[in-house]
Amino acid sequence: MDQRGRNPEVDWPARPDLSLALNRMGTFDWDLDSGRMHLDATALEVLDLRPEEFDGTPAGLRGRVAPGEEDRYDSRVVQALQDGRSHYGVYFRTPREGGDPAWIHLQGHILRDQDDRPYRIIGILRDATRDPGEPGAAGERDEGRRRMTGVVERTTAILAHARTVNDVTDVLKDREALGHLGAVSVMLGVVDGGRIHLVAEGQLGTYVPEIEYTRIDARFPMSEAVRTLQPVYISSREEFQRSYPQLWPYIEPLSVRSGVYLPLIAQGRPVGALGLLYTRDGDFTGEERNLLVALASGIAQSLQRAMLFEQEHDLAEGLQRAMLPRRIPEVPGARIAVRYRAARMGRDIGGDWYDVIPLGAGRVGVMIGDVEGHDTDAAAVMGQLRIVLRAYVLEGHTPGTAMARASAFLRDLATDRFATCTYAEIDLNTGMLRMVRAGHLDPVVRRGDGSCHRVQVAGGLPLGLPPRDRQGSGSGYPVTSLELHPGDTLLLCTDGLIERPGRDPEAGMRELMDTADAGPTDVEELADVLCDLVGDAGGGDDMALLLLRRRGAAVPRGGGPLHQRLTPGDADGPAMARHLIRAAVAAWGAREKADEIELAADELMTNALVHTAGGGHVVMWLTAGSRIRIEVEDTSSALPRRREAGDWAVSGRGLMLVDRLADDWGVEPRGSGKSVWCEFDVPAPAPGPVPGPLPGGSVGADADADAGAGAGAGADADAGAGRMPGTAAGPRLPRPEPESPPEPAGTPQVAWDD
Questions:
Q1: What is the pLDDT of residues 297-333, one digit of tens each?
Q2: Quick one: CA torsion of 7, 8, 14, 20, rounded to 10 degrees?
Q3: Within a 10 A sphere around the Cβ of 641, how many other Cβ atoms?
Q4: Which residues 6+ apart lie within 8 Å of 667 measured at CB?
Q5: Distance CA 87, CA 89 (A)
Q6: pTM
Q7: Are strands 432-438 and 459-460 parallel, antiparallel or unpaired?
Q8: pLDDT tens per residue, range 77-102
Q9: Cis (ω within 30 of 0) for the bond into 462?
C-alpha cells in the first residue's frame, strides 16, 4: 500500500492480455482523480475510433455513444460508485458510419482505497453485435426490456402526482423521465374541440407556430392517431415525406429518421396524442409497441385527471370571483388595496371575503370576513352574507346593529356554518374610525412613522351563533372608536395569512406586524409583500387581505364639523342653528352664499320639525372637495317627495327651493331614519389671514397633516348652548361605544311634502 492506501501492484496503465485482443476485447483504464482515461488499440477499434480522435478523457468518448444512451451509461456508473460495488456492466449503442448502430458491452472493476473511496476503474469492452452465441443480442434484448419497462414504471409513478396539464408536460419534457426511450423529441397534443393543441415539445426545441393548432381531419400523424384511435408508426424519412407532405418541411431540417404518434385515450374517448421522434431507422418491435401503448395509457389517465382538475379549479375560481366584489371603488381621501389567495389544497375555494362600501360625505366602510369551510357551500354562504351586511350598512344602521342583523340572517339560513367578521367605518374628513368585531382577528394599524400596533377591539360572538342569554356577559357587538391619522394604514386580514401548519398563530401575527413595519408605504406594494408571507407553507386555508391608508392631506380651512340638535317645541333651536350656520359660512370663505345656504338649511330643518315627531340633528362641515355640506337627520324612514304647489298654496315649495339653491342634494337612509343633505361649492380662498373662531365654537386654522389634522368628530353640541366643537388633536385611545337606542314605538313615518 502507498501512503494514500492504494495497491502499488496495479501498474498504470493496466497491461492487456493477447488473448483479449484476439477475441476483440479491448481494455480501458480510468483514473477518477485526474480524469485520465487510457484505451488500448483493440478498444479503439471496437469503438471505431482513430487514436488521434481520442483525447485521453471520458469526454472524448461522447461522440461514440448513441443519443439517449449517455445518460443511462453515466447513471449506471454513478450508481455502482454510490452503492460501494466493485463491478458493474452495461450495454450501449455506438453509431457506425453508413450503417446501423453497433452494440457494445462494457464491464468495469472499481478500485477503492483504505477509506473505501473509489479512485480508479479498470475494465474491458467488446463488440456484442456478432457474438456467435448471441449473448450481446440477448443482453440487448434484456437491457432494452428493462430500460423501457423502467421508463414506463417511473413515468407512471411521477405522473400520479401531476395535478395540472403543465405538470404533465413538465414530466414529458424531462430527460430523466422519457430520455431512456431513445427519443430526441417529445410532443404532447391536447384535443380541443375539433382541433389538437400542441402544448409541449421538448429536447429538440423545434417549436413551430404553424402547427400549434391542427385540425383533427388534417393530414398530420398526430391528427391521424386521434382520428383513428390507433398508433401511427413511421420507420424512415422517406415515409415521413411520402405519407405526410404537410409535415415534411418541418421534419426535413432535423436529424429525425423515425417516429411514433400514440393516441391518448381515457374512458373510451381521445383526450390527446403523444409524439416521439427518433434518429434511428427501422420499424418498432412488437415488445416496443406494447410498452409504448402502455405508456400512452398511463399518460392519458394523468392528462384527463389534470384536465378535470383544471376545469374544477376554473369553476371554483369563477364562483369565487362572482361572490367577491367585481371592483374596488375609488375613495377620495384614501388608498385601498385588497388581495385574495385561494387555498393550495382542496377545491381552491373558500369563504373568505372583503368589501369596500362608499357611504358618501367622505365616509367609507370596509369589511373582511371568513365563513367556515372550503367548498362551494362556504362560498355561497359567503356571498349572501357579504351582500346582506352591505345592505344593512347602506341602510344606515350603525356598525353594531348591522353586525347583529347579519348574524340573525345567517342563523335564519338554517346552515351549520358560522362566520367571523370585522367591519370598520371611517370618516376620512375627521379620521374617526368606528369598528366592530365578530370573533375575528384584531386589526393592525401601521402609523405614518412605520410602527405597527395591534388594536384591541371589543368583540362579540362569530356570526350565526345563537346569542347569549340576557344575563350572559359580552352579548351584542360593541363598537370601538379610534383615530386614523393622515398617513396611517388600517390592516385587516383573515387567519389564512398568519396561520401555518404546526405553528402558533401568535408567531404568525408577530411576523405579519414585523413585515408591515419594514414594508413599503404604498398599499399595493405592501399588500404584495404581505401575501408573500404565505408562500409555499400555506395551503390549508384561503386568505383575504384589505389595506386602507388615509391620505396625508390636511383638513381644508378649519372644516368643522358643526353639530346642533333640533328638539320639537324648542323655538330657539332653529334660530341658534341658523346663527351658527351663517357664522361658519363666513369663516369658510363663502360669505356671498350665506343667504342661499341659510335658506336651504332652514327648509331642511323646518321639514324635519314639522313632518316628523322626533325632531332632528343638524351636521355641517367643509369637505375635502371644498364644499359646504349640510345634513339633517330625522327618525322617519319615509322619503321626501317633491310636489307642485299652487299659486295660493302655503307649502310644497321647500324641496324646489333646495333644488334651485344647492349645487347638489339628496337623501340617504339611516338605520333609524334618514338624512337629507345638500352641498354648496365654496370659492377658492383669497390670500390673507386665516379666519378666527366662530361665536360659541371654533373654526381653527388648517391642521398639520403629520400632526393628525381633522381628527375629532366632536360630540353633539348642547341644544341650549349652541356649541360647535373644534377639531381635536392627537391620537384617541380605543373605547367601546354604546349602540344607538332603538327607535321609539309609535314614531310617525310621514313623508314631508314641502
A1: 888 888 888 888 777 777 766 776 777 888 888 888 8
A2: -60
A3: 10
A4: 639, 640, 674, 675, 676, 677
A5: 7
A6: 0.51
A7: parallel
A8: 888 888 888 888 888 778 877 666 77
A9: no
